[in-house]
Specification:
352 residues; alpha+beta; three-stranded antiparallel sheet; 7 helices
Length: 352
Amino acid sequence: MPHLARLVVGFIAALVPLAGAAALADREVVWMTSRDAALERELNAHAARGLRAAAVSDGLPCAVTVMQAPAQPTTPAQYRVVADRDLGASLPPLTDDGYVPRFAQRSATGRAHVIFEKMTAGRTAVEAWQLVEFADMNALAAALEAPAREGFQPRLLARYPLKTWPGLSERGQILLSKRPGATAREVRVVAGQSRNIDAVAKQVADATAAGFDFDLFATGSRDGSKTLRRERLHVVLSRGTGAGAGRAIKLERESSFGTFGSGLPLGTAPFWDDDYVHVWSPAERRQTWASPIRLSANEANCIGLSFKLRIDGPRDQSSDIVGLAARKVLSGYELIYLTDQRLGGSSAVLKW
């Protein structure tokens, strides 16, 4: 019943703006299923019209990228798409030129591509970036210790490690950044594999009370394959020297439809067979709404998916699209898109 009550309240809030608040204007939404060079061309073509990358899918065999017009017009963004095997060589020149890693697309085979975004032409580097590789998720914490001592903070899991037979295994890749003047940091990785995430949520809450802040999280199967059940959960947190109590971080496991949390969305991923894990930080007058789109097995593999999303996906939104996550269902897949809604006013995508 508590979840039903939240669903009803969220549904009403989503339909009826608060008294005195002007209705938000719809903003154009574009769905893309391209990869590699074609994706980079599409990103830049739509960016020239004022759209920005909003989210990439997690959990589908076919990678989906969604772009959305921002609530307020901004300088047109520029994009580069880099394959995981090229990250080591491409990271320094791109970040020196002002590009920032924003999203990672992961395929069913374990290959990954990172979408870099640059907001201001001629912008020089603000942060230093580093790529760290690791054998498996059990080795992640140890792999982060040395860069953390130098002030680097985990930012993006570029590739989830895949451990199968020789020739197909892939090491994990994580991107870290360091702001000017940053001091040594301490990293903590909270892991769980029980379907009940209460223990993980409590460890995260205890860590934030001790000054740790949320960096990223991921779910995965035992060997990293995207075709197996995602029963592993890892939350990465870090803190600077002498940090006091940090912002509260909540973990919540929910099914596909309705509202979750009352605050800033930080991430969503499929978990086990029939749920999603959401990570959020409490904030007033904010909520996140999850809306499902049903896909056949063929559509989930990119056969007719572009047409399906043009018809069934949102063509315009008044709130920020902040996530795409998918799970298998009896007849195919379910893809949920998440919108961050600021009640009584315009919304804004959370930035680092």
